[in-house]
Design a protein that fits this description.
- The protein is an alpha+beta fold.
- It is built from six helices and ten strands; from the N terminus they run H-H-H-H-E-E-E-E-E-H-E-E-E-E-H-E.
- It has two domains: about 10-125; about 135-315, 3-Layer(aba) Sandwich (Protein Transport Mog1p, Chain A), CATH 3.40.1000.
- The strands form two sheets. The chain has a seven-stranded antiparallel sheet with strand order 3-4-5-9-8-7-6, sandwiched between helices. A three-stranded antiparallel sheet has the order 1-2-10.
- Strand 7 and strand 8 form a beta hairpin.
- It binds calcium ion (2 copies).
- The site of one calcium ion (CA) has 8 residues, from helix 4.
């Protein structure tokens, strides 16, 4: 019994002993190690989290810092923009230089205008050259026909007697003979033509190379040499039927002594001072005066005096 009890006790005791003196089992030890590991990992994780949070905080703070820096840089950029405005001010300075250039240009223009005025004033001071004071045109062979008139009559500019008949070119033309055909007449040649005025009943011989134009109801006819000069034929009224001298003096009171009286065919003729205008009077038509005028035009020389005389000598009433 006792043993049993002892056994019981023993058992009881052994249990108690086991409970009291129980030694940690290897699994428990392992379990304890795992717990330590868990704690260590937790601590590490915590540290990492804290570090991460601190890092994020630091980054956020840093961003704030950088943002603040950016803002301040933006402000600086704004200030740089103001610097650009200063550059614009520099542009205004360039505008000032342009204004100076314009001022110079205006000065040059004014200088040119002054030069023009001087040229004009010189022209005004210099007396105008009268048509009759112009020199005769160039006459290479010195036969009285200028080189330009030699072209009109198809004659030689280097031979006085183109057709070799013993008569000079000018002499033949003014006497009605052909200067290029020994036995020909001027009227029969192609170098002259007849103009007839049906309104005022006259006719005139003229160089065929001239071109005529009628104006003022045929009262004025211009024979253009096509070389800058012309010969005009006009009919003037003489309702008072004045004689040549009276008419001319009445028309030009300041020239009443500056003309010559001559005769061409059946006409009484007044030749004016410079010899470039003929006034033809006919007793058959006493109320009209026929005026033949040589106009040098743009030429600075008298190149068609023989043609002018030819036409005056071959003016006829019809
Ligand atoms: Ca000549
Ligand atoms: Ca001849």
């Amino acid at each position: 019994m006792f043993k049993k009890e002892t056994d019981k006790n023993y058992k009881v005791d052994s249990k108690s002993w086991e409970e009291i003196h129980v030694m940690p089992h290897i699994d428990d030890i392992k379990k304890s190690g795992v717990s330590l590991k868990k704690i260590s990992v937790s601590v590490v994780v915590l540290i990492i989290v804290i570090t991460a949070v601190a890092g994020i905080f630091f980054l956020l703070e840093s961003k704030k810092f950088f943002r603040q820096n950016n803002n301040s840089n933006t402000g600086n950029i704004g200030l740089n923009t103001n610097t650009d405005k200063n550059i614009n001010v520099g542009t205004n300075v360039n505008t000032d230089s342009n204004a100076n250039l314009n001022a110079n240009a205006n000065t040059n223009i004014n200088t040119n205008a002054d030069l023009n005025n001087n040229a004009n004033s010189n022209k005004e001071i210099k007396p105008p050259v009268l048509a009759g004071q112009l020199p005769p045109g160039k006459d290479f062979d010195n036969d009285g026909l200028t080189d330009m008139e030699e072209e009109v009559y198809d004659t030689s500019y280097s031979r006085k007697d183109t057709d070799g008949d013993g008569y000079g070119d000018k002499e033949e033309i003014l006497n009605g003979y052909s200067p290029t055909l020994p036995d020909g007449t001027l009227n029969g040649s192609a170098v002259v033509a007849d103009y007839s005025n049906s309104e005022f009943n006259y006719g005139i011989l003229y160089p065929a190379k001239f071109i005529w134009t009628e104006t003022s109801q045929k009262r004025l006819v211009i024979f253009d040499t096509r070389m800058g000069s012309s010969i005009a034929v006009m009919v003037r009224n003489n309702s008072l039927k004045l004689g040549p001298s009276e008419y001319f003096s009445a028309l030009f009171p300041d020239k009443k002594d500056k003309f010559s009286l001559t005769k061409i065919n059946n006409f009484d003729v007044i030749k004016d001072e410079d010899g470039l205008v003929y006034y033809l009077f006919s007793s058959d038509v006493p109320d009209s005066v026929y005026v033949i005028e040589y106009r040098p035009g743009s030429r600075n020389s008298l190149d068609y005096l023989v043609s002018f005389e030819l036409m005056a000598k071959n003016f006829v009433l019809k």
